[in-house]
Design brief:
2 copies of one chain form a homodimer. The first copy, chain A, is α+β, with helices and mostly antiparallel strands and 249 residues long. Chain A is built from 7 helices and 11 strands. In chain A, strand 6 and strand 7 form a beta hairpin. At the A-B interface, helix 1, strand 4, strand 8, strand 9 and strand 11 of A face helix 1, strand 4, helix 6, strand 8 and strand 9 of B. The structure holds a DNA duplex (30 and 30 nucleotides).
DNA sequence: TCGCCGATTATGCCTAGGCAATTCAGCAGG
DNA sequence: CCTGCTGAATTGCCTAGGCATAATCGGCGA
């Protein structure tokens, strides 16, 4: 144990990438190149530590993270193996709509189409898990990219969970951004589906009625309560959700 | 240090949940309940270790994982703060189709509709990043749940990246499963959109032409190369992608 | 008052151990 | 032949330290 709490100055392999990352990369390299194939055993903590000349905890961290990421599977006594991955989970980034649009270089526009207190449909009530006398704020907004309709947002807010929303006009600020700044969220639940455009949605989004829309529904939770439920509809032809996982180039 | 390498028998707070998880939960509880709000400072490694009576590494692991998950933000010297989260990423689980169907209790069925060598369209060629003389295998398959069409799969495989595919009939095994067992993947790129059903897709999926379909496209990579590109189409009305992030009840 | 530079401090990574929990394999007994 | 027990292998979690690095804050000089 000399410098940096024992990191040997000898190797210093890749300048200064942390040791545990070097190990992760080495393992990934074996898998990527096909030397280790799905189902094959991977050396255990102790063996890895010996090969890399590091403490077992360091090797352990590398292997644990790989397991967390689904690259390998670990079981006590049975040892570690390269995961037989099905298709791995898919990370979709759903950024704030205004930032998303501006990131593409387009000009962001926002219009409040309607705002109503108490217009609570039965299904909205159910989705908000609202009691019979719960009050809501209903909003219909349109987000534009370069003056063209980009996303139609229909939202219900439980006024008991976010009372301040009642006194906000939402004429100049989108409800998403307002809520992010005023209500602490914890969790969310999403649902993605394809739908045919209703007449109203078609009119606002400037597509034909019946045209395919990509619809994203989100419920946002705070302490077991649904704060808000929102339906985001995009013209299917002009909109995609993009995502990447693992490594590629 | 007494039992379990020093874990004090005294508290043993929650029976036997690991110490680092207890710390994570405690921090999350502060945030969930609104005591710590976005932007507020979070005690550092040393302080947490002191409060919980554990080693700094244990506190460090809890805080590091929270940072990895995007719950808190950490900066040297500046300390840790509750993250100002925008909308967090959205984890969609895309399981293997046969397992997915069987998980719902339905009977899984598979049919190979067409198989062709060399039928490479220009767009497929581009998406596979194929040279002008690259050879591909094209497949059209249908996955059924309880005898009803569930997913239409159209797939191109780069035969240079997966030569063995040429000699596989794919009559009894789906390409997804076959590839998982024969070609080591590393990364994937997904794209989700809504589309109107083409006449051919409508016929296979037993919907009206023009009906909304939820389409998932996936490119799978291995060492900078695209191994396979697949288009998975689902009847929009009968299919949704479901997901949850964070915690809710 | 402004800008630079060192001291301070919190995070990040590491070691070298040790105990706990899980589970596989083999063996004994019914 | 099956069942249950036991030993051993392996991962998982923990401690108690130490050095490295980054970023902020004060002080000092111009």
């Amino acid at each position: 144990m000399s410098d940096r709490g024992g990191r040997r100055s000898a190797a210093e392999s890749a300048e200064s990438t942390p040791r545990y990352l070097q190990i992760k990369q080495a393992v990934l390299e074996q898998i990527r190149s096909g030397v280790w194939r799905p189902g094959d055993p991977v050396p255990g903590d102790a063996e890895v530590a010996r090969r890399f000349g590091c403490a077992r905890m360091t090797a352990h961290r590398a292997l644990r993270e790989l397991a967390d990421e689904g690259v390998i599977e670990r079981r006590r006594r049975a040892g570690s193996r390269v995961a037989l991955r099905t298709t791995r989970s898919l990370l979709v980034d759903v950024p704030r709509i205004d930032l998303e649009i501006e990131a593409t270089g387009a000009e962001y526009g926002y219009r409040l189409l309607a705002r109503s207190l108490g217009r609570t449909t039965h299904s909205a009530r159910a989705r908000l898990r609202l009691g019979p006398d719960g009050r809501t704020l209903w909003l219909l907004c349109l987000h534009l990219a370069d003056q063209r309709p980009y996303q139609l947002e229909e939202r219900w807010i439980d006024l008991a969970a976010a009372p301040a929303a009642e006194h906000e006009s939402f004429r100049d600020i989108g409800p998403n951004r307002w809520l992010l700044e005023h209500v602490p969220f914890v969790g969310a639940e999403h649902l993605i589906r394809a739908e045919a455009a209703s007449r109203r949605a078609a009119r606002h989004l400037e597509v034909e009625p019946g045209a395919p829309l990509l619809v994203l529904e989100r419920r946002t939770f705070r302490e077991q309560r649904v704060v808000t439920w929102v339906r985001l509809a995009h013209p299917g032809a002009r909109y995609v959700l993009r995502t990447a996982s693992g490594e590629h180039g």
